[in-house]
UniProtKB/TrEMBL annotation:
It comes from Brevibacillus borstelensis AK1. It comes from the Bacteria. This is CxxH/CxxC protein. Pfam families: YyzF. NCBIfam families: CxxH_BA5709.
Length: 80
């Protein structure tokens, strides 16, 4: 894993991320279970955004659980 500063573009703004915490996606149905899983795995509540507001073509915006197009993005902002 790259431990350098990681940023992501959200609605035209560069947002700094905790490098050890990934960006994950979930559909509406699985948003709650994915948030719970994130908390369990990383011992931190994720910040959530609309998946469509994440401006990164390289990310696979599909629900981690069922593979459906994601509605929600889960990530951890630095300094939050
Ligand atoms: Zn799902």
């Amino acid at each position: 894993m790259d431990k350098k500063e990681k940023t992501i573009r959200i609605e035209g703004k560069d947002v700094a991320l905790h490098p050890e915490h990934p960006v994950r996606f979930a559909c509406m149905e699985h948003a709650d279970t994915q948030i719970d899983e994130y908390v369990d795995e990383f011992e931190a509540a994720p910040d959530t955004y609309r998946a469509a507001s994440i401006e990164d073509d390289k990310l696979d915006k599909r629900c981690r659980e069922c593979g459906a197009p994601a509605e929600i993005a889960l990530l951890r902002e630095k300094g939050m």
